[in-house]
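Subject: Sanity check before I submit

Could someone independently write out the structure tokens for this chain? I want to compare against mine line by line before I put it in a report. The sequence has 343 residues.
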Amino acid sequence: MNFASDNVGPVHPSIMAAVMAANEGSAMPYGGDDLTARAVERIREVFDHDAEVFLVATGTAANALALSAIVDPFGGVLAHGEAHVNTDECGAPELFTGGAKIIPLPGEGGRIPPAALRERLAAFVHGEHQVLPQALSLTNATEYGGVLTPEETAGLAAIAHAHGLGVHLDGARLANALAALECTPAEATWKAGVDVLSFGLTKNGAMCAEAVVFFDRERAHRFAWRRKRAGQLLSKGRYLAAQFLAALQDDLWLDLARHANAMAARLAEGLTGLPGIRTAHPVQANEVFVHLPRPLHAALVEAGAIYYPWRETEQTVLARLVTSWATSAEEVDRLISLARASV
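---
Independent answer below. Compare away.
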């Protein structure tokens, strides 16, 4: 009953088989192999865009490098206060940009209200005494398991573009957002105004498969050197490419996300049907945030349930439970049964 993260699950068998198949024979290094060329083309097909695509190994690298391409060291990146780029990248965006400042914005459920973005942008009136706002970073699905519709993304992107900002999207859980929205990858990204995407599959059945996708190709200027300097140009890049090819074949990546979302919905429905348990945010993707009475939290942990206590009060624990492609209905039902017995 490990609901700590969608990173705890194994690699999907089809993706692992693709990595093993890539292990046969020799191939040119540093992305010069056939698999990498095919993976780049496949990503372009998925997003219906002749984008510049760069494969990397981690989501942190994807986010930090993407921002480094669109922000100067004296620039500012506007993002939700609880976005990964602000709270969980150990300063990597600041390091890779050479010192750009993350400017946190408020918003319920990980969403940035358009009014909050406008208000913050209007406060930059001191010229060179302040950082120069240059980017807006969005997250879809959000850190609280919500999804941004194409219309929401487009509205925020329009404000950013009107002020000369580039738009970055952290898509570590983009598959879960797309599965919930039932829209195309293009509609959720470049058609909604996204300039550069951190496209992640690691949380969705891959071993380590991330990509920086520039829909605005001009912003990818000399990005190959940025990737190399950051240690993200893998000498045996074919193993990254093999994961993308397997995950994107026959929409496997979306099928895995649909299952994870369904397990989250099942978990939320089962838990919130019990006394004293209530959700903190709507469950749209694969994350469930619930307020648990402290005695119930203690009982679940004692029984072996693993999840993150997000915030705590004297009476309750706000718990984050995350499902993945590997989460089974039996695992979900077992946790619900334990909670029912404890209640």
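---
OP: Matches mine. For the report I'm noting this point. The domain at 252-342 is CATH 3.90.1150.10 (Aspartate Aminotransferase, domain 1).
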